[in-house]
Design goal:
Rossmann fold, alpha/beta, 2 domains
């Protein structure tokens, strides 16, 4: 009589336990934002232990697409993950600060940052470091020591290379103008300073304009270029200018458009910085005499690689140069130059 009673009681106890466990299980949390992985732009780098935020100055220029590709390449090789997120335009300091603060609060393993402003980003970087989120700076400097390493072009030397080439093209005499980029941008400020230093060494060259800024977009640079060229146009329709230098992609293209629209393209020596398909074509067409090129793909790659090495406890250099190269119509078809002029970012970004 006892055996038939014990079996159903055991079953009953098991059922009660299961129901109790089901009641204690918490509901799924739907109040939090999307997980980190959903913000990775298609470049899952494996199940590595590190998630790095890579924050560019902007996301529209060809230069930043190449930086992105380099970061993706490194992430896939090293087995980490990256979150690529930056302002749309290169003048939105507040947005970049917000992104740095957001990534810090989310507790990413590290931040690879191209600061829009060498002073405005100091406090966000300091706060990240104090909360245990190390920062590697790329592309443009920061007036601070609160970072692991600075991976970038030697921008002053890049500007100097442009100035020396300009002096050579002009035979050491003539009038030149420079369209600046934006105040607070350390990288382009260094390029501008390097260019002016080289021009000053050529005593026969006069700088007739160097105080106008093109701004963050091609459109703003185009308007600034028009304003700069207007007083230099003679009554006979000629341009009283022998050479022009622009320190980045957007100012170079904005100036190119202004020269083309005014029918001055090819009549003045013109040197720019960085590359795009339209700038490469302009050089083939004789409308650009040289471009000083960085290696943005390598910059993104080394930025991520350096951060991973730091997180692994390895020693890294405080300053890492990615190089700068002068490309001209004479050498632009050489394989090494083609790799810099037309970096294969689509291979890594799936475009």
């Amino acid at each position: 009589m006892i055996r038939p009673v014990c079996l159903p009681m055991a079953v009953l106890v098991a059922l009660v336990c299961l129901c109790s466990c089901a009641r204690q299980a918490p509901p799924p949390d739907t109040t939090q934002g999307p997980p980190v992985e959903q913000e990775i732009a298609g470049e899952h780098a494996g199940a590595g232990q590190y998630t790095l935020a890579v924050i560019p100055k902007g996301t529209t220029h060809e230069f930043w697409k190449s930086v992105h590709a380099g970061a993706v390449k490194a992430a896939r090789e090293l087995g980490c993950e990256i979150i690529w997120k930056g302002p749309l335009k290169e003048d939105d300091r507040d947005e970049q600060i917000k992104i740095v603060e957001d990534m810090t609060s989310r507790g990413v393993s590290g931040i690879v940052l191209a600061p829009l402003d060498d002073t405005a980003l100091r406090m966000p970087v300091k706060a990240a470091t104090e909360k245990g989120v190390p920062v590697v700076i790329i592309d443009s400097g920061l007036q601070s020591e609160d970072y692991v390493s600075f991976v970038a072009t030697d921008n002053r030397n890049g500007g100097k290379i442009a100035g020396e080439r300009m002096a050579e093209l002009l035979g050491g005499k003539g009038k030149v103008a420079m369209l600046r980029y934006a105040e607070g941008s350390a990288s382009t400020t260094e390029r501008e300073a390097g260019f002016l230093e080289a021009i000053e060494a050529a005593e026969g060259i006069e700088v007739v304009s160097s105080n106008q800024y093109g701004g963050a977009t091609t459109e703003s640079a185009y308007k600034a270029a028009e304003n700069m060229l207007a007083p230099l146009k003679g009554s006979d329709g000629t341009l009283s200018l022998d050479g022009i230098f622009c320190p980045n992609e957007s100012t170079t293209f904005g100036m190119l458009r202004a020269l083309q629209d005014a029918r001055f393209a090819g009549t003045v020596k013109f040197i720019g910085f960085d590359s795009s398909e339209k700038l490469v074509q302009a050089m083939r067409d004789g409308e650009l005499d040289a471009l000083v090129l960085q290696d943005p793909l390598n910059m993104g790659y080394l930025g991520v690689k350096t951060m991973v090495e730091h997180l692994q406890g390895r020693s890294v250099e405080k300053r890492i140069s990615t190089g700068e190269t002068l490309v001209t119509p004479q050498n632009m078809d050489e394989p090494d130059m083609q790799a810099l002029l037309m970096p294969d970012f689509k291979r890594w970004l799936g475009e």
